Amino acid sequence: MMSHTIFITGGASGIGFGIAENLAKDGHHVVLADINEQAATDAAKRLTDQHLKASAIAVDVTDAEAVAALPRNLGNLNIDILINNAGIQHVSRLEEFPAQKWQQLIDIMLVAPALLTQAFLPGMRERNFGRIINVGSIHSLVASPYKSAYVSAKHGLLGFAKTLALEVAEANITVNTLCPAYVKTPLVEKQIADQAKENGISEDEVVNEIMLKPMPKKAFITIEELAGTARFLISDAARNITAQTMVLDGGWTAR
């Protein structure tokens, strides 16, 4: 496989860092983008200490001007692959959901992928190669209570990917969305605690009765599975796979 330069948002931790580490081991150069500059720098160092190619950049993905300036600020690095991964969660019934927080989730998980794609797409068109991989969720396809903003953003991501795939179809650029069921990350660990509080049950009951119950396979999705799917989407074998929703859900949506 050719070596590419990959830009990953939310790259300092969780799913973003896990995918970055796996793809860096394939010989790609990964650019870890995160709102927390120190976290991004530390994460990149963890990779370079393993003799992998990595660099860090701080960016607030909701800042349109900062995002538009990224290609310029990256200097000689041409981004071949964009992985829109940055995300946050807020669990609350709608009546108590702060309006600003609702807006923030939409800005980070739906508007930002559009802004980032807008920034890197001209270069991809120029070089006639690009892979845009959005990290969606099982909640791009189904809903759970108390997550109205998150579910709305993740559903919207699928519509964005399909539309964009049509717009770039004449070039060697594909746009796809990874939709995993629960992945054990710090974000999900926090959700377990929040859901326990909201539902008045124990954390073990949240895992077994809310998170894993809808999954016939009864297992959390691993970072390696997500990275492996991204690896496939980057490959030549997937050059005609575009506008697709890659669902890693242990059978959840078969019911």
From TrEMBL:
UniProt superkingdom: Bacteria
TM spans (from-to): none
Molecular-function GO term, any one: 3-hydroxybutyrate dehydrogenase activity
Pfam family, one: adh_short
Keyword Oxidoreductase recorded: yes
EC number(s) on file: 1.1.1.30
Family: Belongs to the short-chain dehydrogenases/reductases (SDR) family.
Record-linked InterPro entries: 3-OHbutyrate_DH, NAD(P)-bd_dom_sf, Sc_DH/Rdtase_CS, SDR, SDR_fam
EC main group: oxidoreductase
NCBIfam families from the UniProt entry: PHB_DH, PRK12429.1
Descriptive protein name: 3-hydroxybutyrate dehydrogenase
SUPFAM superfamilies: NAD(P)-binding Rossmann-fold domains (SSF51735)
One Gene Ontology term from the biological process aspect of the record: monocarboxylic acid metabolic process
Keyword annotations of the record: Oxidoreductase
